[in-house]
Task: inverse folding
């Protein structure tokens, strides 16, 4: 069974929040630049999508539920963990509700959740895995960042 100290969970939480805030900050900066361009050019700004989307690692746990129409923008793995960030066009509340409903159906137990300020954080575990999922809003859609840890 995976046992994580509060220090490790705190570090993972901070990393997840940092990813969400970074995405949000970049989106806000883009919005300000677009507003300046609109005023200067008197045209409606268009949102740009990331240049590429990625695939999940082959070893990514296949029983982890993914939001509908999600596109992977960040993907990384190591021996005992996976990190992924997705963009989804589903609204924030719909994406949060999706995870709250679908994680248990896939056998995950939600151990903690927090919502507020346009951000939802979910902690869940299943067998030897634990995950932290952060869901927030950005200009390109809803950003879902997750870290999955595999215990011994």
Result:
């Amino acid at each position: 069974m995976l046992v994580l100290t509060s220090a490790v969970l705190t570090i993972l939480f901070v990393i997840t929040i940092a990813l969400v805030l970074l995405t949000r900050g970049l989106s806000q900066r883009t919005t300000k630049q677009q507003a300046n361009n609109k005023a200067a050019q008197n045209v409606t700004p268009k949102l740009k999508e990331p240049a590429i989307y990625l695939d999940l690692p082959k070893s990514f746990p296949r029983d982890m539920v993914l939001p509908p129409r999600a596109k992977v923008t960040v993907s990384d793995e190591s021996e005992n963990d996976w990190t992924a960030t997705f963009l989804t066009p589903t609204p924030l509340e719909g994406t949060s509700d999706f995870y709250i409903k679908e994680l248990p159906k896939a056998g995950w137990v939600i151990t903690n959740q927090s919502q507020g300020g346009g951000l939802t954080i979910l902690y869940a575990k299943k067998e030897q895995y634990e995950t932290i999922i952060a869901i927030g809003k950005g200009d390109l859609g809803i950003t879902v960042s997750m870290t999955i840890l595999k215990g011994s």
